[in-house]
Amino acid sequence: MSIDDGLFARLTGGLYADGCAFLDEATDHLPAKFRDDFDLDSKNEFCLPVKASMRAFLRWSERMELISKPDGLPTFLSHVVRTVPYYRKLLQRRASPPLTLSTFPVMSKAEMIENYCAFISESYHADDQKLFKQTSGTTGTPLVVWFDAESFYDLNYQTYRRVARHLPGLLESLTPEATAAIQLTDNPATWPGSTMLPSLNLSRLYRQIFGMQGIDNDRVIARVRACQPPLICGMASSLLQYLALEKAALPGAPTCHPRAIFLSGETLFDNGRALLQSWFNCPVISAYTSTEGGLIAMECLLTNGLHLYSDHVRVELLDGSGSLAEEGDGEIVVTNLLNWAFPFVRYRTGDRATVRSVLCECGFRGMTITKLHGREATRFQLPGRDVDVGTLDQVFSRLPLIEFRLEQQAPNRFTFKWVPADAREDPGPLEDEIGSILRMHLGDVAVSSARTTRITEPGTKARRYVACDPA
Length: 471
Fold this sequence. Notes:
Rossmann fold, GMP Synthetase, Chain A, domain 3, 27% strand, globular
């Protein structure tokens, strides 16, 4: 039995914890057989095989056309009420067409896990191809998300076309089998592979692993250098680790010259952007993506915020009073119009943001995430006063650090971990400056400061400011 079949059987049989344990065990065993040297010219595929991806492209095109029509949203919502047991039971008797988002309640990950089987569309059970992805679980229990071909194609293939559109002449230069991108990761739950991208003229995307036990990092750097990919992709924390490896191996200057760096999956901080731009001498494009919502928003080259893709996702903001609005400040609530297999309707992401309607100099007009706080603390509550994280960030972002984390264990007790941008330099002066900043902004509290080589573990998401519970 394949992994997807085995997982689907367990989860739809009501054995959620057993299914996740099965997936973890399978994932632990997968990388081992792929740890041999990876040949960039191999035809080893990951994601969808080429024929399947071409079929998925056709289905994706039809769905995009359907949801772009004036009745696209009501059509999707009708499918949800008709085929998803949870919503059929909740809404069918009291929901009258045309359906609107206001008909549906706000939904959390915990509620979906508790009623897991009831959120899978009955139409998906007959689908001959089961596609899934598990959320990171950095703030709780991970959620296993099922995809139909349309939503899987959009997230894993069409995303690269949207990035390429920002780079004049790139699409026209790509030919079948040419290298379009290398995805770099140090997540041990992944393995090397390649896939053709129908969205980029059947050029090829390679996934390359570094940093794991048994991996020769110098050979990885040499392969990337030899390949000279137009795009380098990955999570910000992973690419910053790769940058540190490159600097150590090639202290003079980089020898890989991509057209752009594309980052998604976690927050990109200003100093991380500056380090990557300075080393690779190219634009850094950040996107807001999630397993549940797909590609939600992406920067243009002017980096004036993250422009929302309202053609296939709806974004609302949930404020402290429980009110929802399309514009303002609050927790991001998404409705993914592309995933009809495991629909997310008014789903709470846990990420906080500011959204405004803008006219960007790049020509985009519409809703834009102007500030993405993610899951960072915005204030620290100290005895007798509060400290605004923004004032701390302005100072720490100017320091030569790859990453740092200020974590509050108690109202008057903190830890500060930091990774220098250049491990070869004397850390003394930087350590003194960090101590001075912490004393100035936090005052008379206990702060333990420690230099380290890594803060964000592979496969997790970077967080800079973590507050303790007010209780």
